[in-house]
Amino acid sequence: MLKPLHDNVVLKKEKSEKKTASGIILTAEAKEAPSFATVVAVGPGAVVDGKLVVPTVKAGDRAVFKKYSTTEVKIEDEEYLLIAEKDILAILE
C-alpha cells in the first residue's frame, strides 16, 4: 500500500458509468474521466513556519479534485492517484 508523505493524499479512482442517466451509451471517446475519487490514505501534513498543518481530509472521504494535478500509480492491478491536498477542491457529503 502507498503511504503518502507530507500533505499528499492517495485517491482511488471510481469507475465511470458507461451510460448516462437517460440511458445514452457513451463511447470511449465521449467519456471523460470522473474528477472524483475516494480518499485511501493521507499524509501527516505539511510543515509551515515550523508548525505541522494537519490535513482536513481523511480516509473514506469522496473528493472532487483538479483533473490535471494528479500522478497515476498502478499497484497490483489497482489504479491510484497521488495528489497534494491543496488540489482537492471539495469533499462530497
Determine the oligomeric state from the structure: single chain
- The span between the termini is 26 Å
- Note poorly predicted spans: none
Largest sheet: 6 strands, antiparallel
Shape: elongated
User: Could you name the CATH topology?
Assistant: 10 Kd Chaperonin, Protein Cpn10, Chain O
Cα-atom radius of gyration = 15 Å
- How much of the residues is beta strand, in percent? 35-45%
Instruction: Give the strand line-up of the largest sheet.
Output: 6-7-1-2-5-8
Number of domains: 1
Number of distinct beta strands: 8
Say which CATH homologous superfamily is assigned: GroES chaperonin
Please tell me the overall pLDDT. 86
Write the CATH architecture name: Roll
Order of secondary-structure elements: EEEEEEEE
Number of helices: 0
The top level CATH class name:
Mainly Beta
Class derived from helix and strand content: mainly beta
What percentage of residues falls in helices of 4 or more residues? under 10%
